[in-house]
Amino acid sequence: MSFTVFLLLIFLFKSDLSKSEAHTRSLILSAVEKATFFLEDKYRDINLDAVLGFRILQALEKWASEHELPSQQAQVKRLVKKLSSLIEKASHSLRQSDPEYFKKFEPILRPDFWMLPHLWNQTDSALAYSTFDSIDCFTEEMSDKCITYLLGTWRENDKSCIVTDACRNIMTMSGCSDYSLSHQLFYFMIADIKGCSDHLFLRAQYYKNIFCASMMKINLMIESNGFRFSSRDLFMENIMFCGMSGFSDFFKPSWLETILTWQKAEEGCFGKPNEDFEHSSRVKDQEQLLRRVKRREKVFAGNYNENIQILDFP
User: Fold this and answer.
1) Which residues of the chain have pLDDT under 50?
2) Backbone torsions φ then ψ of 173, nearest 5 degrees
3) Cross-strand pairs, 176
4) Distance CA 87, CA 57 (A)
5) DSSP string of 253-270, one letter each residue
6) Residues facing 41 on adjacent strands
7) What pLDDT is attached to residue 140?
8) Please, are residues 83 and 50 in contact by the beta-carbon 8 Å criterion?
């Protein structure tokens, strides 16, 4: 959920949304506000992914200072104030309920860890994988450990930016798909932010170019298949990660319009389709969900699945 909210924010932040497009910005802000109100009632139940999403959402304050429309600035500032309080409450709740897990990934929950892109690039379709070999190139535990090696939280008071041979191999493995592919990109994103100096990261942009070209190919396939429910989470995650990596062609106006239709008007969440969703599509989606990577997710009452997929850690 907060992942979806941040995705809307980064559409808002994208420079192509000119000041003349006040209506579009208003629609996005309205969707962000509704989702924030929904999560305000659920902060005790949200997982680490959601707390991370809220932390990144504090970039709203920067957006407010860079735009001239007073009414929208006031709306954003109200949201930032609400989010700041909510982040602290949710972080405290998570720290109490799962202290060991929280400690491993606490660095990425700090307010100054994440940043939005300042330079924009375009994906090159020629760099995308011609075929995808596997959706499960490595296990959750392996991904978890590689991230904590970068963060320096794999052991008490140990150094960060460690790159083991195993991590080097799995995080540069070619042909990965779906969430394994986004884990690979996420790994290089964290290394960039941490300023890791291992020679592997001298080729960080090379790998990002390949990963995001392949993720664009996947998103186009998801679009051509009619945005099945089980694919929407991956679709949005690809936009967010590659958007944060500076690939502007993920911010397609038609994709934004589609994502906005997924929000439930009254509840404010981006949940499951209505019960009259086609039975055949539902069966296929359930089969795909069973094959997906297991995650720490929470399902709220009323079919509001938090289903965020920012980290995918066990």
Assistant:
1) 1-2, 15-17, 20, 68, 275-296, 299-314
2) -60, 135
3) 134
4) 10
5) HHHHHHHHTTS-TTT---
6) none
7) 82
8) no
Residue 69 sits at φ, ψ, to 5 deg, of: -75, 110
Q: How far is CA 139 from CA 52, 152, 175, 215, 293, in A?
A: 22, 20, 16, 20, 8
Tokens of 21: 């497009």
Angle between helix 48-57 and 2-13 (nearest 10) = 20
The helix/strand/coil state of 106 is: helix
Copy the structure tokens of residue 229: 């429910």
Confidence (pLDDT) at 31: 82
d(CA 38, CA 50) in angstroms, rounded, equals: 12
Instruction: List all residues 6 or more positions away from 234 whose beta carbon is below 8 Å from its beta carbon.
Output: 178, 179, 182, 218, 222, 309
Q: What is the chain's Cα-based Rg?
A: 19
Amino acid at 165: D
Domain ranges in the chain?
Answer: 2-305
CB atoms within 10 A of CB 18: 9
What pLDDT was estimated at residue 306? 42
Minimal CA–CA distance to 181: which of 192, 190, 172, 189?
A: 172
Helix, strand, coil fractions of the chain, as percent rounded to 5? 60, 5, 35
Distance CA 250, CA 120 (A): 11
**Token pair 């936009």 is at which residue?**
239
Size of the chain, expressed as the number of residues it contains: 314
Structure tokens at 40: 């305000």
